[in-house]
Structures are given as C-alpha cells and as structure tokens.
Amino acid sequence: MDDVILMQNVWKAYPNGVMALNGIDLSVKQGEFVYIVGPSGAGKSTFIKMVIRELKPTRGKIFINNKNIANLRERQVPYFRRKIGIVFQDFRLLPKLTVYENVAFALEVIEEHPRQIKRRVMEVLDLVGLKHKMRSFPDQLSGGEQQRVSIARSICNRPPVLIADEPTGNLDPETSWQIMDVFRRINEQGTTIVMATHNREIVNKIRHRVLALEGGMIVRDQQEGDYGYED
Amino acid sequence: MCVISRKVTTAMKIRTLRRHINESFKSLGRNGWMTFASVSAVTVSLVLVGLFLMVMFNLNKIAGDIESDVEVRVYLDQSITQPQQTALKNDLKGIKHVQSVRFQSKKEGLNSLMESLGNDKKSFSDLQKENPLPNAFILKTKKPEQTIHVANVVKNLPNVTDVRYGKGTVEKLFKFINIARNVGIVLIIGLLFTSVFLIANTIKLTIVARRREIEIMKLVGATNAFVRWPYFIEGLVMGVLGSIIPVILVMVVYRFAYYSLGGNLQQMFIKLIPYHTMTMNLSILLIGIGALIGVWGSLSSVRKFLKV
Fold first, then answer.
1. In A, what residues contact B, Cβ < 8 A?
2. In what residue span(s) does the ABC transporter domain sit (chain A) (predicted)?
3. ipTM over 0.95
4. Which of B205, B306, A116 minimizes the C-alpha distance to A106?
5. With a threshold of 0.90, does the pTM exceed it?
6. Number of domains chain A is built from
C-alpha cells in the first residue's frame, strides 16, 4: 500500500443531525498534490478535520500512513499528529515568539534534541525563504510571510503528508502565488499535499488533481482538473 | 509498519522539566494578583483548618484518655449475702456492652481513696477502724458512650444501693466533641472547596490567555501530559505557598498553648499532645492539603481545554 490517505465509506453525522459527509471513498498516493474544492457547507472543513483527527467519523475507515485513525485512541492522537503537517488559513502563530521560536516550538513540544531543533529549524526556514527574518515577531511580518512560517512549522517534523485548509484564504493574489511556490518545493521533496481551497485562479493555473465535494459527497475526481465553480 | 505509535518515553527529560517550571513561574508572575488572591484563599482556609485540627486532635486525645478511664461503680447493699453477690456479679456480666466486672472490697476502696487524698489522709485515719465504704463492683464498658446505658440498667438491679459514673462530664464531653467535629468538618470542607475553586479560576484565566498556545501544541503533537505539566506545577506552587503562613501560625500558637496552658491542665490530669509531634504532623498535613487543593484546582480547569 502506498496510499498516504485512504478513505473507505466515510460518513459523518454531527450531533445535531446534520450529515456532513455521506460515504466518501478516496485514495491519495505518496507525492500527490490534491485540491479539495466545493461550495461552502459542502463538507470541506469536516473532511479536513477528519483527516487530522480533530473529528472521528461516524462510520468508515480513514487510513493515514497506513494507520486507521478512525479508531485511534485519544492517547495516540499526539503521536499521529507528529506525522502530518497542518496549515490553516489564519496561520496560528504565537505572537510573543519570534519566527525561529515559533518553528522550534513544534519540535520542543515533542522533546526533540536542542541541536537537532536548531539544524532543522534553519533548514525549513531556508526552504520557505525566511531565514533572514528568523528574529522577527509575527506582527512584523506580512500575511504571506506569516503563512510561510506556519508552513515551515508544519513540515519541520518531516511529515509524509501536509494538510492545508484554505492556506491562501487571507492573502492577496500576489502572495498566494508565493505560497504555492513553497508548496511546490515541498511537494517536489515527496511530501503529499492536500489543500482545501476557494482560489479559482490557483486551481486553474497550477493544475493538480481536483476533488469536488458537494453535499458531503465527492462529485468529481479529476486529474489536472479545473476549479469548476463560478464564485 | 506502525508509524504513529512511536515509543513513549516515560522518563521526562530534565530540560523538559526545566521548561515546564519556567513556564509555570512565568505565568504565576504574569497573573500576579490572581495568584496572590488564590494563595491568600488557601492561606485563610489552611489557617482555619490548622487551628481546628489542633484543637480537635487534642480533644480527641483527651477524650481518649478519659474514655479509657471511664468506669461504672456499683455500690452494694451492706447486708448482701455471698450467694446474692455472686448472682449479682453474673447479672452484671450478662448486661449488654459490659466488658469487665471487677470486685472491689470496702478495704480496697478505702485504700484507693486514701491514696488519692495524698497529704490530707491523716485526718481520715480514723476511718481505718470503722470503714464506712460499701463493697463495690467496678464495670468497664466496651465503648465509653455505653456507660450511661449500662448505669441505667444496673441501677434497677436488687442489692444495688448506688451507681456512680462520671455522669454529666462524660456526657457533655462527648456531646461537645461530636458537635465540634461535625461543625468543623462542614466548615472545613466548605473552605477547601472555595480554595479549590479559586485556584481553578486563576489557572483558568492563565489558560484562556494561553488557549491558542495549547491549541498549537496539540496541533503539532504535544501529549496531554506535556500540556498539563506547567499548570500542574502552578497549582502545586500556589497550594504550597498558601500553606506557609498556616504552618508558621500553628507552630507559634501551639507553642503558646502548650507551654502556658499545658501546665494548668496537667493539674487536672489532662495531657496535651507533645509540641514536636503536633507541629510536625500538622505541618506535613497542611502542606499536603495545600498541595492537593492546588493540583486539584489546576488540573480540573485544564481538562476541558485539552480536547482539541
């Protein structure tokens, strides 16, 4: 099995009765780049939350790195999270820490050796092109730069898969292209990327596999697909 | 195969512990006033707990001392015959709750009376010739509270002229101790809960401020234990800080009570718990309770923030 993500008949019903996902079957291979598109309320957020084990599916199996996380015990979740990178629309950086500290934080928390931390942080800051800003604080950076810090943090554990939830949602078009360039570099190193997005320009210009979600179902799965919505 | 369940290292690394300690003191300082309020609450509670326990421990000991001394004296009719006396003894033994029955002849009774009079006994030496004391049975009950009941039963037996026990004093003492104990326990539980609540609240404030941090920690794979440690230490520190003043106060107050009051009480055959035993045990107890409230308060408020 070289599926990084494998979903088998995944359903999700919220306690209030809303059916967010209605039987998703999906396979994402190592090194793929996948866009998740679809109108608001189609289940994109639920899908992302499911993959990072913020939510458990009501039914079905979700294999990430060949491990079924649907029945993962609470205690094992942290160890699972170390094997996935997560990037959000709102960056989620700690304002009182410098760029360097923000990235190092992720490694300190998992009790990595200080020497390793230093080497790895410099490595990933270099990759996202922010080595020269490592002593700055988040509020001294532009949105795009902040997002790059958050990407650096998400990949410092060398996760085989990177999950990005609207990573360009808060950024202007110019900056968004920069972020996509960082993603390209990470993807070229073999990291699988799953990106939920509303950004039509990006999806149509940088062609990758597109998964369209509507009403909690995959209505389109297209290699080198287009965005396909008019919003 | 199993990528996720990396081996869990149970022994915490020293630099991690150092980080947790740093974090907790930073936060205690940042929320200075709330920390102060919580520590004060613990202090007030523990002062009361300490004073209460000081009194209760001593009352218990005194009660215990008296308890083991409580006996029922059954005075016999002077005209009682030997078979009647044997029958009475068996009757007494048959009464519920009676542990032992001892015969005390009039002579023994007089001797023990003389002894207790000490220097004044000379003026009573005439009594040796004509002993006015009756023969008696001395009963001990299994539990001291039962003396009253036993005394009432014995009173109605034939050939018994009088029944004596520490009437009144014993009853009052037990009643007092029981009431004091119950009121104290209710009061203390209330106070302790208040302290726990205040500490929980303080920690909650610091958590709300660090909510994002916790969220991010969980996102990048920090274990719950890792997130919890600083708060655990914070609670512990607040609890232990709160117990310092109570411990000192108990030492001072008990020193005063023991050395000034203790002397007077000794004439009444009452002994207080020795100074060092008391202060040592009570200090450990107070620090322990302080630590417990602190940790309980802090961990109870972290719990719901861990579900990310």
1. 54, 65-67, 69, 72, 75-76, 78-83, 86, 92, 94, 105-106, 108-111, 114, 153-154, 157
2. 5-230
3. no
4. A116
5. no
6. 1
